[in-house]
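Report of the visiting student (M.T.), summer placement. My assignment was to run the structure pipeline on a short list of targets and document each run. The first record concerns Hpt domain-containing protein.
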Amino acid sequence: MNASTDPDFRARLAALNAKFAATVPGTMDKIAQALAACRASASAGCAAPSAAALHQLHELLHGVAGSAGTFGFATLGQEARRIEQQVRTVMKEGAGWELIPVQVDRLLAWAARDASATEFN
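After the run finished, the structure tokens were exported:
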């Protein structure tokens, strides 16, 4: 029997998707906290946030980017990946931070409305 037609497989996959969906609000809260830490360290007179704050934000976005698509949240994963790559650039080059907070805020607001939506707007 093919896994995609196996009712037990589909039930297990649906349960995993539901479990992931339940974690999204908490994960978005962690991303918001990491963004706040970045803003706080950036406003302390630096052009970019501290390396530790950026690393935390990057890790959280990376986690969402890597897992969201697997559990039916493809657009959330794609947007997290896009922002994660920009954060990585800031970590390497020390420039470009000013664009990231607005993008993370947009991601958080969108995810609060419907993190499983197929269009990011």
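The helical segments are 7-42, 51-67, 74-93, 100-114. The chain has a mean pLDDT of 91. I thank the supervising group for their guidance throughout the placement.
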